[in-house]
């Protein structure tokens, strides 16, 4: 058995579960075994993007868990960070022009 953590942060709460899974279990299978679906029934665990310690895993169905892994379940972005920064910079530029 391999001990791992599974974590998800929703806008209103975060949950971290420690789970023991068989050696060779894929990330996606470990996620299904974790019980996270009971905590967040709105999550689609079959399709959601996953990562380990901040690094996105492109093939979670293939990659096997390693001892100590922390599987992170990612939420979709509501806004493109580059677009948000661009809008903030434009707003700051307008404010500077009005102050001049």
From TrEMBL:
Listed InterPro entries: Mopterin_synth/thiamin_S_b (IPR016155), RnfH (IPR005346), RnfH_sf (IPR037021)
Q: Which PANTHER family match?
A: UPF0125 PROTEIN RATB
- What this protein is called in its record is UPF0125 protein FIV36_12050
Native source species? Pseudomonas extremaustralis
Report the coiled-coil segments.
Answer: none
SUPFAM superfamilies xref list:
MoaD/ThiS (SSF54285)
What protein family does this chain belong to?
Belongs to the UPF0125 (RnfH) family.
């Amino acid at each position: 058995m391999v001990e791992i953590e599974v974590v998800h942060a929703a806008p209103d709460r975060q949950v971290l579960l420690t789970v023991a899974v068989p050696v060779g279990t894929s990330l996606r299978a470990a996620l299904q075994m974790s019980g996270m679906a009971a905590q967040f029934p709105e999550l689609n665990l079959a399709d959601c993007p996953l990562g380990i310690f901040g690094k996105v895993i492109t093939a979670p169905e293939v990659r096997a868990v390693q001892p100590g892994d922390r599987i992170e379940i990612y939420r979709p972005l509501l806004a493109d960070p580059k677009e948000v920064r661009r809008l903030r910079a434009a707003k700051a530029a307008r404010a500077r022009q009005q102050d001049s």
